[in-house]
Structure to design on (180 residues):
């Protein structure tokens, strides 16, 4: 690669990029909505008891806020290989256009990770209380599923990003915890 690339993160990459980058920018994509519809058997759950992590579902007119990272060409291949490995449980990387926010707003080509319904770990939609209960009981090698949800919600608040699905789940887990 000869030019910087942009990587768009809307899940754990928002709060834990763990790769070298030159710039971090709030960003938004259109036509996609963030959903806790992907099963996690290798990070936030185990094969016998999968957790739930985010993927994107197509939805005309929807906006999904996240973060774009600018990665230098010398490390881009290594960064992508690392993410391909980390996200091998059902995600594929796809090209898209992102809107970079903040000073100097502009559009840029980017890559992101997507788990589509044809992957074996896909769980799909469920009522918010059921997803919240699954998140509360799930743990995996990367830690509690609850940590993933709460960190994502906190990071989205820091970005002043709206996300009805994530914040409804956050409220639901707090409610369930307070009733235990
Ligand atoms: C992310 O954008 O944070 C992300 C989501 C799913 C898989 C890999 C990365």
């Amino acid at each position: 690669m000869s030019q910087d690339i942009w990587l768009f993160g809307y899940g754990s990459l928002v709060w834990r990029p763990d790769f070298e980058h030159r710039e971090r920018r709030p960003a938004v994509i259109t036509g996609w909505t963030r959903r806790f519809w992907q099963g996690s058997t290798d990070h936030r759950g185990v094969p016998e008891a999968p957790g739930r992590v985010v993927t994107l579902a197509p939805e005309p007119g929807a906006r999904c806020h996240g973060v774009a990272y600018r990665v230098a060409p010398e490390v881009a291949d290594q960064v992508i290989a690392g993410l391909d490995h980390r996200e091998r449980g059902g995600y594929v990387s796809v090209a898209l256009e992102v809107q970079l926010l903040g000073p100097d707003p502009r559009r840029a080509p980017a890559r992101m990770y997507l788990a589509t319904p044809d992957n074996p770990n896909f769980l799909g939609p469920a009522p918010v209380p059921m997803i919240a209960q699954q998140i509360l009981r799930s743990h995996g090698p990367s830690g509690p599923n609850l940590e993933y949800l709460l960190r994502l919600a906190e990071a989205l608040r820091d970005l002043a990003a709206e996300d009805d699905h994530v914040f409804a789940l956050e409220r639901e887990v707090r409610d369930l915890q307070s009733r235990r």
